[in-house]
């Protein structure tokens, strides 16, 4: 979380909100898989987390050997239990396979450059679907202790060894082809399968942002400035900009970037310096009641942007 806020000034702002039909967009699926050399207290040896459009929908761990839904996700039909049983069976097959491959990759790494520290393997499988074109793209990356080892791209349908020590593994996986494809990377058919069953759920999960503006007095190092804190929004995509004289104040504003909150929502902080003019903070905010003032704040969520299209 961010640092405590300065005492907010009494200011006005525009929060742009339109209502219309939601149009097509780009949807994302990611599988984050973590494999540890041994289980730690309270932590599993193998963990698998699925996110769709930045929302965690399921988690599997090797301690419970179960894949369970998160954030209220359910396929929503009478076969829900059979659905999760089938997903659990797939995770159990992955659990056995990935432990074997993890040990093999560690052996290759130690043969190339022996190290005393234990190795942790990270696997990131990502998939992207463009509603407008129907195009699907998937990329899978394997890393040891944060260092990339292997990569697979569906447009080339081939494994590449990013690290010299992983070339034997890449060659073997390329020879095996579809035999282990469902285990070592994210095939397009599996990507489409999960898109069909999860994207409608995530599009119903929306949270409108809460906007707070604060005035920060001048210090020895910095001019006084206005800070906008936007929080509690989902989906992740949002635009927060300061405008001066009807134009976006490019080069003048600083942003924290979009950061996750402790729940499924996100936050962002954007600030702009006011300069040395002897006017009050409220006079720097342009809103409907202050058309002659200098600054205007604009917040546009993904839903707003699609509704304006």
UniProtKB/TrEMBL annotation:
Pfam families: C1-set, MHC_I. Keywords: Glycoprotein, Signal. GO terms for cellular component: external side of plasma membrane; extracellular space. PROSITE patterns: IG_LIKE (PS50835). Residues 209-247 form the Ig-like domain. One of its GO terms (biological process) is immune response. Residues 1-24 form the signal peptide. InterPro entries: Ig-like_dom, Ig-like_dom_sf, Ig-like_fold, Ig_C1-set, MHC_class-I_related, MHC_I-like_Ag-recog, MHC_I-like_Ag-recog_sf, MHC_I/II-like_Ag-recog. Transmembrane segments: none annotated. PANTHER family: HLA CLASS II HISTOCOMPATIBILITY ANTIGEN, DP BETA 1 CHAIN-LIKE [PROVISIONAL] (PTHR16675:SF277), MHC CLASS I-RELATED (PTHR16675). This is Ig-like domain-containing protein. It comes from Mauremys mutica (yellowpond turtle).
């Amino acid at each position: 979380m961010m640092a405590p806020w300065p005492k907010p000034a009494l200011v006005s702002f525009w929060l742009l909100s339109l209502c219309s039909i939601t149009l097509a967009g780009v949807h994302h699926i990611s599988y984050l898989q973590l494999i540890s050399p041994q289980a730690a207290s309270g932590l599993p040896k193998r963990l698998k987390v699925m996110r769709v459009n930045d929302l965690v929908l399921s988690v599997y761990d090797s301690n419970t050997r179960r894949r369970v839904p998160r954030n209220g996700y359910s396929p929503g039909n009478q076969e829900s239990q059979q659905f999760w049983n089938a997903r659990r069976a797939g995770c159990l097959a992955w659990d056995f396979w990935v432990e074997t491959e993890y040990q093999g990759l560690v052996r290759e790494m130690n043969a190339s450059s022996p190290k005393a520290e234990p190795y942790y393997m990270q696997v990131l499988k990502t998939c992207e679907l463009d509603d407008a074109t129907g195009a699907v793209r998937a990329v899978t990356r394997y890393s040891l202790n944060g260092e990339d080892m292997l990569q697979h791209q569906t447009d080339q349908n081939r494994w590449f060894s990013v690290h010299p020590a992983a070339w034997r593994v890449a060659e073997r996986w390329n020879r095996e082809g579809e035999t282990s494809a469902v285990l070592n990377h994210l095939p397009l058919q599996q990507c489409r399968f999960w898109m069909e069953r999860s994207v409608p759920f995530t599009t119903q999960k929306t949270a409108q942002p809460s906007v707070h503006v604060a005035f920060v007095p001048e210090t020895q190092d910095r001019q006084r400035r206005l800070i906008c804190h936007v929080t509690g929004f989902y989906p992740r995509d949002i635009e927060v900009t300061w405008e001066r004289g009807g134009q976006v104040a490019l080069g003048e504003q600083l942003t924290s970037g979009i950061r996750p909150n402790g729940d499924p929502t996100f936050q962002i902080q954007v600030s702009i310096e006011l300069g040395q003019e002897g006017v009050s903070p409220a006079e720097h905010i342009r809103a409907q009641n202050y058309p002659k003032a200098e600054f205007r704040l604009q917040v546009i969520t993904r839903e707003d942007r699609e509704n304006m299209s």
